[in-house]
């Protein structure tokens, strides 16, 4: 009934890309330049409730208990406008979103955030979307969010063409990898907000970095080799490809004009500890996103040792062990 359809709560988890998305070819539609492949985590969920509020004067957005303002609020309102357009509706909404990690720190809060908002928003406005359509919708908030609709491993297609064709062909889908269940150890060296948003940093990289085209080209090879390595459950191959893909992405940013550098001295200390682990015979491979934090892929049996090594390298950091996690889901009334 109409009244029951007014509110919906969704939970989504962040994902970490093993093959990175960096750079858009359409900023308005949020169409990536390259395909990406990620693992959804079982930690740091975002819980979002969207309630349609016909009596309200406008949208109300609450982020971790405080009213959202400025750009964060604007991104949510623009996303709701898109949901309303698809649903042929116009009533305002109240959005309450809770992150279990700091927002905007390169810990994929935008991925879990827009995946949860897409699912809760679609349900609240009575849109019946299949997982592909939900993933395309989440992409409009943040391209990495398209992947958090799914659990485990997911690939996000950059799609083809322009305009409506690009919009229709760019979405994520699961990559079934039943025999590969690694740990991902996260060293949160700095939980503060990043100096340059990923949106700005990617635009600058695409427009000014002479290294960007070669990284994007190499990324295609990385992706096909990654798929084969995942299929074989070969942690060393998966890790090597993920590490070179991430370091290459950071190289494109370092070559941007002016340079975008997310790595801090602690980041480098943690990267050094990963090399030492490997020298000691522990398979461990690093990846990094738009922030100084380091995520290290390893065997579950080595996760505690790896966590200890990362913490020793950056004693101020918080270290958390993640495994593959579930896709976005709606919460039932009973929960
Ligand atoms: O979707 P955004 O704007 O949060 O972009 C994030 C891009 C990286 O995290 C750096 C890489 C990725 O594929 O997640």
TrEMBL record:
Keywords: ATP-binding, Lipid biosynthesis, Lipid metabolism, Lyase, Nucleotide-binding. Belongs to the diphosphomevalonate decarboxylase family. It comes from Phytohabitans suffuscus. GO terms for cellular component: cytosol. One of its GO terms (biological process) is isopentenyl diphosphate biosynthetic process, mevalonate pathway. Its EC number is 4.1.1.33. Residues 185-316 form the Mvd1 C-terminal domain. This is diphosphomevalonate decarboxylase. InterPro entries: GHMP_kinase_C_sf, Mev_decarb, Mev_diP_decarb, MVD-like_N, Mvd1_C, Ribosomal_Su5_D2-typ_SF, Ribsml_uS5_D2-typ_fold_subgr. Residues 12-161 form the Diphosphomevalonate decarboxylase-like N-terminal domain. Pfam families: MDD_C, MVD-like_N. The gene is mvaD. It comes from the Bacteria. GO terms for molecular function: ATP binding; diphosphomevalonate decarboxylase activity. PANTHER family: DIPHOSPHOMEVALONATE DECARBOXYLASE (PTHR10977:SF3).
């Amino acid at each position: 009934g109409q009244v029951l359809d007014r509110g919906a709560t969704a939970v989504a988890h962040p994902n970490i890309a093993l093959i990175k998305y960096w750079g858009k070819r359409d900023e308005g539609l949020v169409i990536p330049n390259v395909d990406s492949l990620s693992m959804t985590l079982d930690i740091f969920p975002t819980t979002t409730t969207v309630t349609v509020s016909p009596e309200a004067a406008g949208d109300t957005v609450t982020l971790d208990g405080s009213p959202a303002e400025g750009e964060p609020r604007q991104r949510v309102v623009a996303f709701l406008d898109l949901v309303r357009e698809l649903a042929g509706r116009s009533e305002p909404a109240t959005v309450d979103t809770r992150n279990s990690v700091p927002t905007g720190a390169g810990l994929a809060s935008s991925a879990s955030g827009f995946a949860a908002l897409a699912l809760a928003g679609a349900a609240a406005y009575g849109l019946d979307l299949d997982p592909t359509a939900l993933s395309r919708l989440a992409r409009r908030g943040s391209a990495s969010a398209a992947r958090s609709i799914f659990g485990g491993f997911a690939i996000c297609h950059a799609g083809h063409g322009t305009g409506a064709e690009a919009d229709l062909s760019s979405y994520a889908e699961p990559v079934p990898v039943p025999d590969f269940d690694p740990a991902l150890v996260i060293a949160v060296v700095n939980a503060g907000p990043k100096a340059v948003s990923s949106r700005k940093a990617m635009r600058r990289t695409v427009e000014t970095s002479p290294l960007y085209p070669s990284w994007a080209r190499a990324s295609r090879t990385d992706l096909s080799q990654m798929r084969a390595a995942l299929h074989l459950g070969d942690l060393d191959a998966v890790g090597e490809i993920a590490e070179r893909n991430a370091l290459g992405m950071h190289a494109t940013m370092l070559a941007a004009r002016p340079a975008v550098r997310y790595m801090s001295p602690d980041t480098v200390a943690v990267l050094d500890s990963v090399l030492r682990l490997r020298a000691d015979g522990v398979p461990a491979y690093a990846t990094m996103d738009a922030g100084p934090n380091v995520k290290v892929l390893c065997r579950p049996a080595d996760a505690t040792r790896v966590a200890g090594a990362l913490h020793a390298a950056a004693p101020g950091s918080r270290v958390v062990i993640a495994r593959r996690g579930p896709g976005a889901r709606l919460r039932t009334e009973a929960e």
